[in-house]
Amino acid sequence: MANGEFDFIEIIKSRFTTPCGVVGIGDDCAVMPMGERGDLVVTTDMLVEGIHFLRSEATPEEVGHKAAAVNFSDIAAMGATPVGSFLSIALPKDAQGEWAERFVEGFAEISKRYNIPLLGGDTTSSLRDVCVNVAVLGLCQSGKALLRSGAKVGDTIYVTGPLGDSGAGLKVILEGTERTCEADVLVGRHHQPTPRLTEGVALALCGEAHAMMDISDGIASDLRHILKASGVGAEVCLEQLPMSPELRTICADKGWNATELAIGAGEDFELLVTGGEGLPLEVDFPLYPIGRITEGGDITWLSQGEVVELDTQGFRHF
Ligand code: ADP
Ligand code: MG
Question: Which residues lie closer than 8 Å to 206 by C-beta, 6 or more apart?
Answer without folding.
Answer: 279, 282, 283
